[in-house]
Predict the 3D structure of the following.
Amino acid sequence: MTGRIVVGIDGSQQSGSALEWAVARARLGGEELELVHAYTLTPDLDFFGYHGQAASPPVEWLMEFSEEVLRAGAGRVRELAPEMTCKLTSKLGHPAHVLASASEDAVALVVGRRGLGGAASALLGSVSNRLSVHAKCPLIVVGEVEPPTTGPVVVGVDDSPFGANALRYAIAEAAVRETGVRAVAAYTVTHHAFQADPELVARLRASVEAEAEDSITRALDEAAKPGTAPVSVDHVVVEGRAAEAILANADDAQLIVVGTHGKGLVRRVLLGSVSRQVLNDADRPVAVVDLPDS
């Protein structure tokens, strides 16, 4: 797998962790890196009749700061992988918009879970959530804990095109990392009308569990690509909420993969609740994968 991995950096520790993760991933797959830093100017104010401009550093200072952050990031890349090609991009604009644009035709967009914070934040927090909806390629969000380098790729699977595509991506990532996949499907049997009949509940549970297992099998059939290296896929079927099931089975994972579950208008309004919970609560890198553009 070759191509371009985009990394959003802002000088924060978490964006540094995202950069180091991206370097390690690019070394496995042979991709080149593009480091992107976005800077913004404070807009003119129009607040109940008051017109003015909030205090902000001169644009020359912002440009210089951006270039220095990028040079520092490039220096870290050279330390970790002297042979790696690294492009630097500094651009005026909102970080979410700049990074979403940069993600066009990229194989991945990598960001930290949070940026500098407060008024000084140049990158993440809410931006990572925006990118999970607007990125044009798989988004990988790297958190505070040092990312593990061993363990399976864990993926949430359901009976939908999103689950199949997430599994497809997980298998490709596992092949690059020379590891296996743990496919997790969750189901619930909770309707109060069933609780008075334990035998009915047992039959329903067995039926729904079988359907969840079938969803993994069908997703595997859809995700299979002729000629690709075989990757072992463990099936895990769990009763409970999907996000909690995924997280509970990812304690040893080096990467968690979820689908967006929100194409079109719904996607623009709200990332799927399962994906959002996993993204916000996971203590290891999470890849959010949309359907491929048709």
Remarks:
- The first strand starts at residue 4 and ends at 8.
